[in-house]
Amino acid sequence: MSKVKAAIIGSGNIGTDLMYKLERSDVIELTAMIGIDPESDGLKRAEERGYKVFSNGIQAIEENPDVADIFFDATSAKAHVRHAKVLRELGKLAIDLTPAARGPFFCPAINPGSNLTEQNVNMITCGGQATIPIVYAVNRVADVTYAEIVATIASKSAGPGTRANIDEFTITTKRGIEEVGGADQGKAIIILNPAEPPILMRDTIYCEVKNMDQEKISRSIAEMVETVKQYVPGYRMKQEPIFDENRVTVFLEVEGAGDYFPNYAGNLDIMTAAATRVAEDYARHMLSQPSK
Amino acid sequence: MKRKSDKPIKITEVCLRDGSHVVAHQYTEEQVRSVTRALDDAGMHYIEVSHGDGLGGSTLQYGRSLVNEMKLIEVAAEECKNSKLAVLVLPGIGTAAELKQAHGLGASLVRVATHVTEADVSAQHISIARELGMETLGFLMMAHMAPVEKLVEQAKLMESYGAQAVYVTDSAGALLPDQVRERISALRESLDIEVGFHAHNNLSVAVANTLAAIEEGATRIDGSVRCLGAGAGNTQTEVLLAVLDRMGLNVGIDIYKMMDLAENVVGPLLPRPQDINRGSLVLGYAGVYSSFLLFAERAGKRYNVDPRDILLELGKRKVVGGQEDMILDVAAELSKAQKLGV
């Protein structure tokens, strides 16, 4: 079976984890990793595994546009704004793993198969990928007026890009809660915890609803957890949802697959697993089109 | 009193911010107005007003504010004739948008707070605050959780981002006087900017710790009138001022006026005496974030678990400031374990 060529921009935590995920894909062929630091661990690993590596950033794509048709951007929100422009001009698909939010938001558990005509899709944030499916699950049966999420991640799993752009995380996640999750109003909080050994990613979701029906809500949440588990096997509820007047509280834990980072970094895993999913949907779609 | 800095001491009164935890964020405009007016009249240097968890903290996670903090900031700004208005922001909770709004309403100083090991999340907010022209200070919370070298490294990061002072923030009220001395002294020797100290009185050493900090060269000092701050409160401002005066250090704040406002204006706001009860004592003893106290008490009631057990367990798990959601989770786990008899 033929495969669609893809490249990763950004050789940090996310980009490197993504490399391992794409190796397992039956419709995507990873060809290259593009970074800006030739000494980065990610570029070294990519080179060892036989991929083309470039350390001159977006220029590498301008000079070698044929290296891939799908480009994953795992740099930072600010950098992606520039990259998005170049990729658009070259007619390449951009799957954006930064919180730049240039293209429409995408969460595979909620909108599988949609957006296949877009040239740039955005993966929201790690906290968003973990929590927005639950907001959506509550909203579809109970109408969420307000949703608030708290994502707590191990310090070691938050790279410099995330740290330098923490507002982009909170603002983009909030928008995702509203636009994809369906809450009338959203709020996002991120906390870094430096405990050793590192903690698993944990997420708390608070929803205030118009139509409280505990049984329906519990069932909808349980179904959604199963859907997310299909691409993030370590995604689970810590305990049963708590109901309090018009409020539902859900506690989640996300254990990673341990590809690049150890299992605690569920936040990296959910992002790269979701991005791989959407890229595969696109790849299948591209492969099914008659060749030009 | 011998001090290792010749810069003037600047006091920040935090009862309208840290005290927000104690009143479950239910401050009214009138309360903020009357406290600010009295503090301004007494000559207080800085008055901090924000949700207890900083700008944007009004949430289900931390408790919703009765009155939008921006309204409270606006009201306080109207009453500040000489005092300067300060705000707190925790990157990850509050954003630049809220900071700009607070600045527009009259806040001229901001403390940008992170966990003691996570200073690099403050770069964005520090640089925005400096661009706005605000006096911009770093606030390294839960300072007892990191070794001194780590604290120094993190404070230097904040300095490199543009912070004009860095605070040693003893959020759990867990530091002892010698530990405060060691930390302040290390920062004073390593930084070119001022050093600050923020205490909690959970082990009844807030005034002693603050004196040790001042002797070692800290010049930015926090206090709360009547200990109106999370847990057992902070260094009691009016007491500290009286002690400093007895030690020959006049910081230019009227002590009688502070005593009067403590009695007549702040006193009536206390929902219960801010003494060191078993809950707040455990905060200091276990090294847990002071604003967890009321949450642990509520969760204890809900799950029929001793709040002290919840707090000790949170300490064991090295939970950091802001992780209020862990409290219900831990309480539920402890309750399950109790029922199983393990």
TrEMBL record, chain A:
Pfam families: AcetDehyd-dimer, Semialdhyde_dh. The active site is at C126 (acyl-thioester intermediate). It catalyses: acetaldehyde + NAD(+) + CoA = acetyl-CoA + NADH + H(+). NAD(+) binds at S11, G12, N13, I14, S157, A158, G159, P160, G161, T162, R163, A164, N165, N267. Residues 5-118 form the Semialdehyde dehydrogenase NAD-binding domain. It is an enzyme of class 1 (oxidoreductase). Its EC number is 1.2.1.10. Gene3D superfamilies: Dihydrodipicolinate Reductase, domain 2, NAD(P)-binding Rossmann-like Domain. One of its GO terms (molecular function) is NAD binding. Keywords: Aromatic hydrocarbons catabolism, NAD, Oxidoreductase. Belongs to the acetaldehyde dehydrogenase family. This is Acetaldehyde dehydrogenase.
Automatic annotation (TrEMBL), chain B:
Gene3D superfamilies: 1.10.8.60, Aldolase class I (3.20.20.70). Keywords: Aromatic hydrocarbons catabolism, Lyase, Manganese, Metal-binding. Mn(2+) binds at D18, H198, H200. It is an enzyme of class 4 (lyase). Transmembrane segments: none annotated. HAMAP family: HOA. This is 4-hydroxy-2-oxovalerate aldolase.
